[in-house]
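Example 405, ligand protoporphyrin IX containing FE.
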Amino acid sequence: MQTITLDRYADVRDAYRQHDLEQALYDAGGVVMADSLLVLHGAEHHKRRRVENRLFRRGTFRYWEKAFLRDVVTDTLAPFAAAGRADLLEIGYRTVMNLTAMVAGLDQPTGAPEEAGAATEALYRFAKTFSEGATLVHSTRDPGEVRAEVAAALEEFDAIFLQPSIARREALLAQLAAGEIAEDDLPRDVLTALLRNWDELGIDRDILRRECAFYLQAGSHSTADAFGHAADDFFSWARREPEAAEKGRHDPAILQRCVYETLRMHPASPVAQRRALAPISLRGGTEIPEGAFVVLDIAAANRDSAVFERPDVYDPLREVPADVPRWGHAFGGGMHACIGTELAGGVPAPDGHPVSESEQVLGTVTLMLEALLAAGGRPDPDSPPQRDPHSAREHFGSYPVVFGS
Ligand code: HEM
């Protein structure tokens, strides 16, 4: 089979918009990803995306950010800061996992603190295991072993989180049908949306389970990864350009640009892969024959010097063309464009038009970076960060930080 690699910014953008290119990155990750939104194509994808999109309407995350996101971020960080040391990846996962569980519709026990603590522990473990299953294509471990671990984790996840969450929602939907509660009393999450549109979507319980597991991992892994890199890039910037970084540290709009610059340079998904269902001619002249395997090299396209001047330099204050997002292709594009862009990345302030604080949507990663720096977080001088030995991707396996003076 012919493989065509696209590494120019414009070619990748054009490829994302082609309806005859279907998802091909997760063939090996079927144990979590089969029939999930990210692998569906055409009418099936459109139907599912339309149902789930309603939860991600503009304005929802502005409200979330004002109402509770900041508190979730600072409350999660507080015990780590008090202990004086932590691992950035653990802070990242723990912060965002509870948020993505909420988006997915996975209720957490509200009982005794030990019970809640054990549930958070389990979610953390599941998010990491599902993530490894989804990105099996990049794993250096034995695939059979990883698949068996994921299958076991899915069973446990089902019993601890999914079944009780389904039962609560089915009871609410019955109450809605009986006129006992109003539409607004229903939780706004993926699980509720899927249960309500069950017949139209034509899904079954296994698909439902994988979709919720996919959301848990899609949201948490990429956000935790972006947070680790954003902090690392900021620390390096502060060493190279202490004055600029000092100013940025106190300006959320600059911190947001720091995060976008990190996403451009270290996209959590460095490649996308597609299969051509028909012959395709890209505007730049590339001909893609039917059946070809297409690699969208996001990491390379995000460093295309035709679009980003001095592409290998981390410059959060850089100028970019008006029709190019500062994060390049880090959130994908076309039909599979990341549904969580606004939650994770916020809404970019337009150049030269500062937005008021009430209008601003910074996004989870910027809120996390801001909180980390405000707590005095910095790399542990005695314990340097390590790369993840089990992934061919550019992920950190650990990133120790210390707090306080
Ligand atoms: C910094 C954080 C994030 C990054 C860099 C990121 C990146 C991406 C990318 C590149 C894709 C497209 C993959 C492809 O085309 O093959 C994608 C899709 C997706 N992301 Fe994200 N993501 C992030 C956060 C989130 C969050 C917080 C959520 C949910 C709460 C989320 C949910 C999804 C979903 C559901 C899709 C599939 C959309 C579809 O197929 O229609 N992501 N993400």
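Summary: The pocket of protoporphyrin IX containing FE is lined by residues 23, 25, 37-38, 49, 100, 103, 215, 218-219, 222-223, 226, 263, 268-269, 272, 330-332, 336, 338-340, 343-344, 365 (CB under 6 Å).
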